[in-house]
Amino acid sequence: MKKLFRMAAIAAIAISASSCLAGKYMCNYALVTNPHGVEDIERTRHKADSLEAGTVAWYDNLKAQGIMKDMTITGHNDVKIHAVYAPAKDPKNAQGTAVVVHGYGDNHYVFLYLVRMYRDRLNYNVMVPDLQYHGYSEGDAIQMGWFDRLDVEKWAEEAYKLFKNDFTVLHGVSMGAATVMMASGDSLPAYIKAVVEDCGYSSVWDQFAVNLKDSFHLPPFPILNSASIVCRSRYGWGFKEASSVKQLAKSTVPMLFIHGDADDFVPFSHLQKNYDAKVNGYKEMWVTPGAVHANSYVKYPKEYEEHVRNFLAKVKGM
Q1: Range of the structural domain that residue 132 is part of
Q2: Most-buried pick from 109, 113, 158, 170 (CB within 10 A)?
Q3: Is residue 259 part of a domain?
Q4: Lowest-confidence segment of 23-37, 45-59, 246-260 by average pLDDT
Q5: Domains contained in the chain, number
């Protein structure tokens, strides 16, 4: 019996050590990816044009005219964070301010098609941040939206100071969508009137469980448990804590949920989880047939703009 217990103890220690190492690897693999900064910006410039032709030239023209400007502030944990901003195409008749939030591994360039939509066609002022460890923003690791939400709230405040407009919409895609959903559960200033989330995950735990299964064919336990402990030790947050669903349960701000029914990266099932979690305040859902991850606008550009325009008009009429 003693020998059996000794063998069991050795096996448990081996499993624990293995899961610890696997957890560290998972944390590094997911949160400390390619270098960011100038190299990252140049890497992704072409992506903006692939999503909507002519977007980079449009952006460069605004920059050359001094209309689109850069800003750096101090974000969460005293990290220097960067954004670009511009007034609406017709500033005197601006309809509001849009804070557009990019996804995992991207930067402010990648979702310029939304910035263009808001500024040129909906006549909104725009604020477009680089999340921590992305683009020109500093940071030790990707925050998966959790602490990013606090930075986005700061950017909304900076935009309010700049544009003096009392209608702000937070619009995020993928990890950016999780970021704005997570922000929606905080105590927000009165000028944040609406949120649009496009294919955001229900929680970091749920998303990493999908990635672990798809990429490595492994179950969540014990690797995710270990990786979450490592993340909390290093960065101050855990995978289950970083939950869109938990934050949405506290949210009262009107919200438009968008998700492609062919999305298998952030599974389509996350849409219903998120939508059901929001029990207070106005909400709408738009399912885009056949759209894969973060592809709803590309597949349905006119319909996308129409849904956003109509949603914001309804919110303004409340």
Answers
A1: 36-203+242-316
A2: 170
A3: yes
A4: 23-37
A5: 1
**What CATH number did the domain enclosing 114 receive?**
3.40.50.1820
Query: Six-digit token pair at 111?
Result: 């979702």
| Angle at alpha carbon of residue 128, lines to 123 and 130, rounded to 5° | 170
For residue 61, give every residue at least 6 positions away whose Cβ sits within 8 Å of its Cβ, in sequence order, or none. none
Spatial distance between the Cα atoms of 193 and 159, rounded to a whole number of angstroms: 14
211 within some domain: no
| Res. 19: pLDDT tops 80 | no
Tell me the per-residue pLDDT of 82-101, one tens digit each, with 9 for 90 and over: 999 999 999 999 999 999 99
- Residue among 120, 122, 101 nearest 167 (CA): 122
Residue type, 246: K
Could you please report the per-residue DSSP string of 179-248? HHHHHHTS---TTEEEEEEES--SBHHHHHHHHHHHHH---STTHHHHHHHHHHHHHS--TTTSBHHHHH
SS3 (DSSP) at 286:
strand
Q: Is residue 225 part of a domain?
A: no
What is d(CA 181, CA 171) in angstroms, rounded to the nearest whole number? 9
The β-bridge partners of 69 are 85
Mean pLDDT, the chain, whole residue set: 91
Q: What percent of the chain has pLDDT over 70?
A: 92
Record the pTM.
Answer: 0.92
